[in-house]
Write a structure and sequence with these properties.
The complex is a heterodimer of chains A (538) and B (422). Chain A is α+β, with helices and mostly antiparallel strands and 538 residues long. Chain A has 16 helices and 22 strands. In chain A, helix 1 packs parallel to helix 5 and helix 14 packs antiparallel against helix 15. The longest helix of chain A is centred in the N-terminal third of the chain and has 17 residues. Chain B has two domains: 255 residues, FAD/NAD(P)-binding domain, CATH 3.50.50; 137 residues, no CATH class. Classes of the chains: A alpha+beta (538), B alpha/beta (422).
């Protein structure tokens, strides 16, 4: 290691891919640190439809991606079973779906190594009674529901066990480069305190996903991303027990994923310029619901809790292959690509990993880590597929059944629930704050599911804010963490953002009731900007 | 088949007040509602008018009456009478109101430690207003009650500006008997416990034990009993050694439940009938008149015929008006035209500030009959009251309760006069 270097590798981006790279580097014995500008898994990984792909979605459009998906599907079931609900999945053909695609589908799956099995319609409708009776064919595939926050958390914990470090709310603001152009250090800024820190390193992996173009530009390299906006709707309950896919070339509203107590209908695909501009439009919602009707008649009259959008980390195909340009982002390969900016742009020591799927995050990490390790003279093998992720401390907070069992053990119907919709106990929040004392309420949501149910935080927000405030008064909150009033306002704003696009029916009523509780009774419109010192409470 | 002079639809403050006044004047009244309403969600005080800058409720009424389309623009002359009638109904009960239209709107502390303007409050919250004159504010929380946040509230009240506020703000928490192992408590559960005299005596003793020496006005969670509230409140002031006021928090609202119970008693005592729990499923019309409504009932529907129908089903929050996808608004009982703001954006970005859409509702004429965009009554024997009315933003203007009881009073008086003439 050259003099002054603090770590071998800096990883940029705290989504699944960055966490996977950090873990892989650490398991190969390289020293590594990760920086993320927001909370971990708050970008594309957290704004995700919850699907562990079988790969069958891509058997025709993107066979490489399909093969990656089925291989990694098996790996994740082995190394991270606690993050997966084995729902199974179906591909179903509606009258609108093309015959020729239906005919080619089983063979294409077989070629990609994806097991399919035709399902008789009477059996399908017994298992999934809400599905449209116009469905004319169905195949079973090894899809499942995958919990992204838990996956990223487990991956980071594994990386930490192997000596790596990870920092959230740390944005990259520039690079120091040697005379030969290669990267020597990463300049970062704490987005909450403004404190700057330069991390000297031998190599940098940009796993910034849809934001990778911005990172490359900071380093003087060139990478044109072509982010694809994907919008999704969350319903207040499940309409199916298994994942339901349209048996058609990928299109809008083509998938319904049961996740926890809800289900997610996805996904639109719109090529966008700015990954931070992920606003769900009325047109997208109409398109999603119209297509959802073909799978589950009546779904457009059901209660939608939220709409949200993620930004796919797609790259411009010209960049990496020189192939002809595509107009539609869905036709750009989902398969990932490792870009060596030393060879391409004269910025040595910088690699970008772009494209890919959450399902293939480990494989993406392996491929870029192979390149970086080789360059650093490390020939240790990749072991990330062999060693399971650490089990979460205690039980998984995520599955409702686990939460119910824990609550029974803690006192049954008299458990100390802060969030009644998602059964989040005071102890659960306290544990999450013990682990990460710099958490905002929105960060706590990602680790506990606080405020993710039908009331979207109306009842739990003030309760949790009071907890944050008590901890701040006791000196148990990180100085950089937002105080309770700031946290309350930003959480409420975040919840409102997701509700606004679908503000009709019961959810609009909920929004009005929340406004009545907050402004009418609690006077939140006149809440001080910051909560006060601790001299008032005895 | 039940028949009544008047069928009132909706059991929020406006529907209850209207039915109580009508029943009291000798009219036959049937109140049908699909569920409990605003009383159970809100703070139980009487927000008459407190728009920005108003010094008193009367000043607030004048300011709001000056804005075209606000319900007060056609009713401001009746507010004082309506408040008097409402107070008369509640006098001598546990939900008797203190304060009046000419009292200065005073900032009162909320359970979260913000300040909201108020002047007319139920007796149990009355000590929150009035000059502090050197007294301290003691926030007395209840241990294991998840909706009591006195430390946080005290810190917020200390951090915010409170001109003329208390000399000192402190927070203390009392553990009440038998609650050590209890967590899943809501305000109503605690209120029921307080109704038990033996438990209450021990609970108040435990609360008294944490009150520090000094001259305090004491804010407590709004849980001081349902049926025995007046007695408990008096007992609490005696034992705790200072004026005690309740601070409403998350629903269910115990002050609101008390108000609902009292108004229901009034209605039934005067011969009115109440049915809560069933939606209106059919309307019989005869041209521009409604002959009858049908509600759900066990294994059948119930036909309710009347001379006049009073729509008190509320706006979006009360589910009297429902928004459908594509911004289509539906008044759910009669299909009346709904007026919404023209702004392309219905919401503000800040969840703590008013949203333009909050002013939506039904447009009415001077008799509070629903009108179409040309100003013609849509249904001649239907009256619209409470938060179904268009043109107000009741959270921002803090006028929802005043509009509810005033519109209820205007309608009840005109219908009573008519049935007396008949």
């Amino acid at each position: 290691m050259p003099a002054g270097a603090e770590v071998d590798v800096v990883v940029i981006g705290g989504g699944a891919t960055g966490a996977g790279v950090l873990r892989d580097l650490a398991m190969r014995g390289l020293s590594a640190t990760l920086v993320e500008r927001g909370d971990f898994a708050s970008g594309t990984s957290g704004r995700y439809h919850g699907l562990l792909h079988s790969g069958a979605r891509y058997v025709e459009s993107d066979p490489i991606s399909a093969r990656h998906c089925i291989e990694e599907n098996a790996v994740l079931r082995r190394i991270a079973p606690g993050t997966i609900e084995p729902t199974g999945g179906y591909f179903v053909a509606t009258p609108d779906d093309p015959d020729d695609y239906l005919d080619r589908f089983p063979a294409a799956c077989a070629k990609a190594g994806i097991e399919t099995e035709p399902v008789p319609l009477d059996e399908l409708f017994r298992a999934e009674p809400l599905l449209s009776r116009e469905i004319r064919a169905a195949y079973r595939v090894p899809d499942a529901a995958l919990e992204p926050w838990e996956l990223v958390d487990g991956t980071l914990n594994s990386a930490r066990e192997h000596g790596a470090t990870a920092h959230r709310y740390r944005a990259v603001i520039g690079f120091e480069r040697d005379a030969d152009g290669s990267v020597a250090a990463v300049m970062t800024r704490d987005t909450r305190t403004g404190e700057e820190e330069t991390i000297a390193c031998r190599a940098v992996v940009s796993a910034a996903g849809a934001w990778a173009g911005q990172i490359a530009e900071l380093a003087g390299a060139r990478l044109t991303m072509s982010p694809g906006k994907g919008s999704m709707l969350i319903f207040n309950r499940r309409f199916s027990t298994a994942v339901i896919n349209r048996l058609a070339p990928p299109g809008d509203g083509d998938i319904l994923v049961p996740v926890h107590t809800v289900c997610i209908l996805g996904t639109t695909d719109i090529t966008g310029e700015d990954p931070d501009d992920a606003v769900v439009t009325e047109e997208e919602i109409s398109a999603l619901l119209a297509d959802g009707e073909r799978l589950v008649p009546g779904i457009s009259g059901a209660r939608v809790l939220r709409a949200y959008a993620g930004s796919r980390p797609l790259y411009d195909a010209d960049e990496v292959s020189g192939a002809a340009s595509h107009d539609e982002s869905r036709e750009i390969s989902r398969a990932h690509h490792v870009i060596d900016h030393g060879a391409r742009d004269g910025v040595g020591g910088l690699w970008s990993i772009v494209g890919g799927k959450l399902t293939t995050y480990r494989l993406m990490a392996r491929d870029v880590t192979d390149a970086v390790a080789a360059a650093l003279g490390n020939d240790a093998p990749c072991r990330t597929a062999d060693e399971p992720l650490p089990e979460p401390a205690g039980h998984s907070p995520y599955w409702l059944g686990d939460r119910l069992a824990a609550i029974e053990a803690e006192g049954g119907g008299d458990a100390d629930l802060v969030c009644e919709c998602e059964l989040v106990t005071r102890q659960r929040l306290a544990d999450a704050l013990d682990r990460r004392a710099d958490s905002s309420l929105d960060d706590l949501r990602r680790t506990t599911r606080l405020g993710m149910g039908p009331c979207q935080g109306a009842f739990c927000m003030p309760r949790a804010a009071a907890m944050l405030d008590a901890r701040r008064a006791d000196g148990r909150l990180h100085p950089a963490a937002p105080d309770a009033n700031v946290a309350l306002r930003s959480f409420a704003a975040e919840r409102l953002r997701g509700t606004r696009p679908i503000a009709w029916g019961d959810q609009l009523t909920e929004l009005f009731l929340t406004a009545g509780i907050f402004r009418g009774t609690l006077g939140t419109d006149a809440l001080p900007e910051h909560t006060g010192g601790d001299d008032a409470a005895s | 088949m039940p028949r009544a002079d008047v069928v009132v639809i909706g059991a929020g403050l406006s529907g209850l007040a209207c039915a109580a006044e009508l029943a009291g004047s000798g009219a036959s009244v049937f109140l049908a509602a699909k569920g409990m309403a605003s009383t159970h969600w809100t703070h139980g005080g009487l927000d008459v008018a407190a728009p920005d800058g108003a010094s008193t409720s009367r000043d607030g009424i004048a300011r709001l009456a000056g804005s075209a389309g606000h319900p007060y623009a056609r009713m401001s002359d009746h507010v004082a009478d309506a408040v008097a009638a409402h107070r008369a109904r509640l006098d001598g009960t546990a939900v008797a109101m203190v304060g009046d239209l000419d009292m200065p709107l005073a900032p009162i502390p909320t359970a979260l430690g913000a300040l909201r303007p108020a002047a007319i409050l139920p007796m149990g919250q009355g000590a929150a207003v009035g000059p502090w004159e050197g007294q301290g504010l003691l926030l007395l929380g209840i241990g294991h009650f998840r909706d009591s946040w006195v430390d946080y509230a005290a810190r917020n009240l200390t951090a915010g500006a409170w001109p003329g506020g208390p000399a000192e703000i402190r927070a203390v928490t009392a553990d009440l008997p038998g609650l050590d192992a209890r967590n899943n408590l809501n305000a109503r559960t605690l209120a029921v416990l307080f109704d038990d005299p033996a438990w209450r005596a021990r609970a108040l003793a435990a609360m008294a034990a944490v009150v520090p020496p000094g001259a305090w006005r004491i804010g407590v969670p709004a849980v001081l009993g349902l049926e025995a509230h007046a007695e408990i409140h008096a007992h609490a002031q005696e034992v705790l050694g200072g004026a005690v006021f309740e601070m409403p928090s998350l629903p269910p609202s115990v002050p609101g439940v008390r108000l609902f119970d009292e108004l229901r008693r009034r209605i039934t005592a005067a011969g009115g009938r109440i049915q809560v729990g069933f939606d209106v499923v059919e309307v019989e019309r005869d041209g521009r008149r409604v002959r009858a409504i049908h509600t759900e009932a066990a294994s059948r529907t119930l036909r309710l015929a009347a001379d006049t129908f009073v729509l008190a089903t509320g706006g979006i929050a009360g589910e009297g008006i429902r928004a459908h996808r594509g911004r289509r608004l539906e008044e759910r009982v009669f299909g009346l035209p709904v007026t919404a703001p023209n702004d392309s954006e219905w919401f503000s970005d800040d969840p703590m500030q008013p949203h333009p859409i909050e002013s939506l509702g039904i447009d009415v004429d001077d008799h509070l009959r629903p009108i179409d965009p040309t100003g013609q009554p849509v249904l001649e024997n239907v009256r619209v009251i409470g938060s179904s009315l268009a043109g107000m933003r009741y959270l921002e203007q803090r006028c929802g309760d005043g509009v509810a009881i005033t519109s209820a009073h205007v309608v009840a008086r005109s219908l009573a006069a008519r049935s007396a003439a008949a």
